[in-house]
Structures are given as structure tokens and as C-alpha cells.
Amino acid sequence: MRSRPVEITLEPVDNQRLARLCGALDANLRQIETALDVAIARRGARFSVRGERGQAERAARAIEVFYDRAAEELTIDELQLGLTELMHGRNASATVKGAPAAADPAARPQLLTRRAELHGRTPHQVQYLENILAHDITLGVGPAGTGKTYLAVACAVDALERDQVKRIVLVRPAVEAGERLGFLPGDLAQKVDPYLRPLYDALYDLAGFDRTAKLLERGTIELAPLAYMRGRTLNHSFIILDEAQNSTPEQMMMFLTRIGFGAKAVVTGDVTQIDLGRGQKSGLIEARRILADVRGIAFTDFTAADVVRHPLVARIIDAYEKDAAEAAPSK
């Protein structure tokens, strides 16, 4: 039996704010519907929200919050980030410009990056940031879009700005996702460059294009394939191993033993997207098992609920996880 719809009326009525809230052709309302799995009907300033009771109430709260924010232009980024925090019981107004910070100071560590508003949007993201700041080695494991790499790079930029480390080293395995490196044009450096592109993007966003280019030129920031790490010892460095699910156990051990004095390391990966050859074990899975009881190493496990991307991404991940769970008993 369907529950009764949640009814709200926005006051005072302001047609311009209503237009900003709803977006062109009600695009913003569709975003709220997609994120919270509800149906929204509107007549003027009166809204009716249908769906599971808890979700309908969250959607109604989102409409009220974003109506308050709509005194200014409401961007799609602000909308989607606000929805993420609302789904986790946080104050969505903290995600928009000019809004007060979250009450919990641990939720908003002040990282020195170009993104002054950067903070953990979900409980796992907050825990992840706290783990990175408090431990020399942190493993972040979970699906795409949960901020594993981006937040790790933000902590690295912060450590560099505070002179806690002398350089940043960003590492990825050069493993093909269904294609062969040999068919790509160029020398080895040009072949592996596309694998490092997500790290470049995060750096440009957090440190700025010009500053990143200068730091790369001076060698203060280094991007390298995992295979190039053998034999090195990295002192006073912030090291990030991204896409670690595509490392072998031997490579993972090699990487973790590169850490020198005054160094901090973060390992990130998604164990549902392993591109290793058939029969090869993932170094990330093995490290999660072997190092579980090692004191001084922190682990953060993300889920689809931590996805901070388009609302459909979390649903896509949930659908694949459900399909895998249903298929598992039949194998």
C-alpha cells in the first residue's frame, strides 16, 4: 500500500527563487527525484512528494533547503553535493556558498588547497580524511566516485603547502582495461601518460594549473608508473598509489616498502574493477587481508552510499552489486 505523499508549501512565495529551485524544464527537481527515488509534483509554491516515507521526507527537506539557497543562482554542482550530504543526515546548507560550516569540526578539516570548501561529504569520507591525517599508511577501498583519489591528492597538496613533506609522488599501475599498451602510439612515457591523467586532473583542480606545472617541472610533484618504483626509498614524501587493485601482491609489497623517513602513503582502489590477467591475484585484496592487524595502518571501506557524482552513479553501482550477489550462488 502506497504511503501518503509529503506536502510542503514554500513561503514567502518568490517566483524567481522558485524558477532557480526548479531549474530549466524542472531539471533540478528531476535531480532530486533521481537521487532520492521519489516523484515530485508541483503547483506554484506547493509541492507533493511521493515515495518511501523516509526518502519523501528527505526530498521535501531538500526542496526547502535549496529554496532558501535559491536567493542566488543554484548550480548543478551545489545541488548534487547538497543532496549527497542530505542523504547522510548532514546539513546541506554547508555545501553552498555563504552557508555556515558543519557543526562537527572534524567533518571539515581545513586543507590548504584552492578548494576552500573541500571537506568530507559522507561519514566514510570524513573517516578517510581523519585516517590520512593521523596515520602514515592509509588504504581506501571502494567503488568509483567516492573521492578516494581526489581526497588523497587534497591531503598531499595540503601537506606540501604546510611544508610537512618535500614532494608528492603519484603512482599508478600501467595495466590495460581490455586494450593493449603496444597498440598505443608513442614511447613508453607517452603510452603510460593516459593512465596518470586522472591524477593530473585532481592536481590542476586543487593546486591550479600554473602551480602544478611549476611543481612538476621542478620535480616537487612526480607522476610515475608503479614499475618505476623498484629500488627507490622515498623520504619526506607524500606517496599515493592509485588504482591499486591492478597491482600484483609482489608489486604491492614492493611499493609499501619504498616508504622512508617522514613519509606518508595512501593506497586507493576498487576491487570490483580488476584488470589483471586471468589467475593473477590483486595486490590490494591481499594487502587488505595481510595487513588487517598491523598497527599504524588505517583502512577506510567505501560503499555506493559514498558516491559523490551524478546521482545515477550510486544506483548503477548498487545494480551491479545486486546482480553479482544474485549470480554468486549459481557459480
Structure notes:
This protein is α/β, with parallel strands linked by helices and 331 residues long. Helix content is 41%, strand content 14%. The chain contains 11 helices and 9 strands. It has helices at 15-22, 27-36, 53-69, 76-87, 123-134, 148-161, 188-207, 209-218, 249-256, 283-290, 311-327; strands at residues 6-9, 39-43, 46-50, 137-141, 167-172, 221-225, 237-241, 264-269, 297-301. The strands form 2 sheets. Strands 6-5-7-8-4-9 form a 6-stranded parallel sheet. The protein has a 3-stranded antiparallel sheet with strand order 1-3-2. A hairpin with a 2-residue loop joins strand 2 and strand 3. It is globular, with a radius of gyration of 22 Å. The two termini are 36 Å apart.
Short description:
By secondary structure, this protein is α/β, with parallel strands linked by helices. It has helices at residues 15-22, 27-36, 53-69, 76-87, 123-134, 148-161, 188-207, 209-218, 249-256, 283-290, 311-327, and strands spanning 6-9, 39-43, 46-50, 137-141, 167-172, 221-225, 237-241, 264-269, 297-301.
